[in-house]
Automatic annotation (TrEMBL):
Contains an N-terminal zinc-binding domain, a central core domain that contains the primase activity, and a C-terminal DnaB-binding domain. PROSITE patterns: TOPRIM. The gene is dnaG. InterPro entries: DNA_heli_DnaB-like_N_sf (IPR036185), DNA_helicase_N/primase_C (IPR016136), DNA_primase_core_N_sf (IPR037068), DNA_primase_DnaB-bd (IPR019475), DNA_primase_DnaG (IPR006295), DNA_primase_Znf_CHC2 (IPR036977), DnaG_bac (IPR030846), DNAG_N (IPR013264). A zinc finger (CHC2-type) spans 38-62. This is DNA primase. GO terms for cellular component: cytoplasm; DNA-directed RNA polymerase complex; primosome complex. Its cofactor is Zn(2+). It comes from Intestinimonas butyriciproducens. The keyword Magnesium applies. Monomer. Interacts with DnaB. Belongs to the DnaG primase family. Gene3D superfamilies: 3.40.1360.10, DNA primase, catalytic core, N-terminal domain, DNAb Helicase, Chain A, Zinc finger, CHC2-type domain.
Amino acid sequence: MAIPEQFLDELTARCDIADVVADYVPLTRKGNNLWGLCPFHGEKTPSFSVSPDKQIYHCFGCGKGGGVINFVMEIENLPFPDAVRLLAKRVGLEVPEERGNADFRKKRERLLALNKEAARFFHAKLQAPEGRAGAEYLFGKRKLSRGTVTRFGLGMAPEGWDHLITAMAQKGYEKAELLECGLVVKGQNGRVYDRFRNRVMFPIIDLRGDVIGFGGRVLDDSTPKYLNSPDTPVFNKGRNLFALNIAKKSRLGRIILTEGYMDTISLHQAGFDCAVASLGTALTPEHAQLLSRYTKEAIIAYDGDGAGVSAAQRAIPILEKTGMKVRVLRVKGAKDPDEFLKTYGPEAFAKLLDQSENHIEYRIEQVLGRYDLTDDAQKVEFLKEVVGVIAGLHSPVEREVYGARCAELAGISSEAMGQEVKRELSRRIRKEQKQQERRDLTPAAQLQPRERSLRYQNIRSARAEEGVLRLALLDPELLRDAEVLTEEAFSAPLLGKAFRLLRDRWRGGLAVSLPALTAELESGEMSHLAGVLDQPESLQNGRQAMRDYIEIIENEAGKRRLEGDKDALLAVQKKLLEKKGYGG
């Protein structure tokens, strides 16, 4: 283990999970637990629970859970060692650096330093003869100022196969490190070459100011037009946004979401320092949660073409689920924000922002654009589709107001529209109730972990295995009665692993708790175990309950062994029959 277990025990003991979570999520006490809106998925009704007694959190909606270190890892998008350091700083502890942890930290810092050196190399090439095409593109065609280019660290990857490799070798970096950072590509012949060639370069900088990756735009007709760094040990495009490191400091009170690097940079140059862009991927729930930490209003300013409209339609519900106010900007008279700014200027764009529609109006307009309301058949189809939009609105007031507007557009009474919306709403509620009833009638399915890789093969045994873990965590001394159990007797590998880890800690005199296993388990494993621990379990007659659980586990393990012996016997019998069939 990279960090001593004793230190982690002291850290989790000092960092009360309720205090840490309360810094990010408003919590209200109900019974023994604290409740709030989950910070990891959008919801209107609180399903996020924090247990001060067990020192765990668990969301009944998305399933995420774990201890205080897990929470910081998820909410701050940090690897385990960085989350430990953040919490240690919070309570005034110094993290003891063992060799494994020191090596991990040193490697991460070296990869980040390599990215920084690469960014300097690309930026310097703009001043060199081989970077003239990039300079003409940025300063000439795109009309960027030198201050903007410097602020964003823009650069140029020259034409050629090994310019970056050679330059970084002179700085002491090996090809294997460049490969790990995604700066080079390995060919079929085993040779490596620069990933970015003859491209304008956009460094991607995280919230801590580190260069974590790059985007590159071609200057000729080659494809792809934009090339981004692959996911690496320091870069994940689904969890980072271009220019958020700058936009998070904006005082404009909202964030503008664009489709590309140049739209974002042009907006910043024009004074709109709240613009960001996703990194060559569709907007993800992680992106939306990240944005919601810095703003209460998001304005989608995607291109006006079909792809941009589709992307906006997908982004709206993702952003709305976080509780943000979502508006959509219609870029009129230009194909994108960059072109609009060049044609009409910043003042016109500011007016356009003020005129941006809320997402409901935008979605209705998109539906309306597909139908001719002078044709009765199309009018009926319009109403069928738009009723679905209205019924999906959370507020009864919104349903009434926008329902009446759609009724007026179609030339029908608001009463008739209201009835249709009510009917659709009732249909959706009935569907949800049936789904819930099916879940209630199939407790075995409810028991199954969300992740397919963790699914149980033997529900009866797994239920008893979960009971053993709950009792052990409620009263570690009950592990004395479980000394007869082995990890192999467990039908579910995760539950067996957790049992072994907890018993080893008990034998070693360490804290027996779920948060203590954070370093040993994956995020999905911790989330499932948090859900297991959140289920009711009584310590009344705890020793007898433990013995009953153990009996079930051992009986089921015995059955599996018999089945295995039976299969082995049948295999031997088959071989003998085959041998006899060929005349011995």
